[in-house]
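Entry type: protein chain
Record version: 2
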Amino acid sequence: MRIRKKVARKSVFEDVDLEGSRFDDVCLKQATLDDVDLRRVRLVNADARKGRFEDVDLARGRFVNVRLDRSRFDDISLCGSRLANVDLTGASIVDGNLTGLSLSSCTIEGLTIDGILIAPLLEAARRKGKD
């Protein structure tokens, strides 16, 4: 399924199978996704700020130019997903599977995973690698 230039602001998606779908130029601001299968999804130029993602499978997904700032992810799978130029400012991930997750040119200030701020950890690892 391909969805282009749609506005689904404050929408609720529950128990939906959207595996392999492609979303281009979509507004999902403040949307709630609960028990949704989005494996192999492509999300391009999308705005999903302040979204709530609960029990969502985003494994092997591709996200390009996506705003996910201040979103909350509970019990989510992002394993093998690739995020490029994604804004995760202030986002929160709780109980997520992030195995093999790839971030490229992403904004992560204030991003927490299970309550731990990620940016300082990455900065410390970067500094340690330079030593």
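Comment: The longest helix spans residues 118-130.
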